[in-house]
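Backbone description:
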Amino acid sequence: MSRTDDDLIARLEAMPLEQARTAIHHRRLGCDFDSPNHRLCLSWLTAKDDAARAAREEASLSISREALANSEQARRVAVKANIIAIIAMILATVAGVLPLVISVMHSSPK
């Protein structure tokens, strides 16, 4: 890149992105439409947009990974809860039947 290109990029970098976008689209930087400088500005803007999109996608992926981890943890907790419920039902059944078995054993003729 030439010094002029570096200066143009430095001017763009000094502006907030939306201000730079407006300046590029309205050719307020002294660049004629489709001139090498205008193409450089558009290329810079595309690179900034691509970087922002990549950051959003990475954030979205991070959220998805976290949601997947949370759902796996919830699945493990649900399986444990189901096992505990089955054990509780078995114990309740045994507790209900045991007194009946004991009473039958005590009342049987000898």
User: Anything to note?
Assistant: Helices lie at 3-14, 17-25, 36-107. Residues 3-107 form one domain.
